[in-house]
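Recall the central idea of this unit: under ordinary conditions, the amino acid sequence of a chain determines the structure it adopts. In this exercise we apply that idea directly, starting from the sequence alone.
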Amino acid sequence: MNNFVMKQWKSLSELGSIYGYLFLMFMVYSFGNSRLFLMLLSSLVLSYIIAVTIRVIYFKDRPSKEKYNNILEKIDASSFPSIHAMRSSIVFALFTLYFNDVFLAVMFFITSLMISISRYKIKKHYWLDIIIGYLIGLIIACLSYLIFYSDSVIFMA
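Accordingly, the structure predicted from this sequence is:
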């Protein structure tokens, strides 16, 4: 793959980074949508608890192996599950459920799919890492939505 194309895949991958997620959370909060902000925040925390637990218990090298010298670097060097795919599917699912808008849902789905594909293209993950990360993210988003959006639940903003 030529250098230009690889740079584009890496740039696309950054949309699924923690910085992209935190920026989105900041934008949601700045527009006064505290309920969606709480859903995004709780989903982020839960996704890291799950992903770090899995990566501590089960280490899997990335396609382009990364060296590590301590436990934090080892967690970061692990491929399974894809946290980028997890975060992008959380955003897709929460925005789809919250806004109930077909156009928005399609746009976020395409974006999350492209972020997930980029992780494979830049050799950060295997397909199974991405699929499992994506599915875990969808489950987390649905749980967060049920907790914070249901009228019968006490966690309302």
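The CA atoms of residues 2 and 28 lie 37 Å apart.
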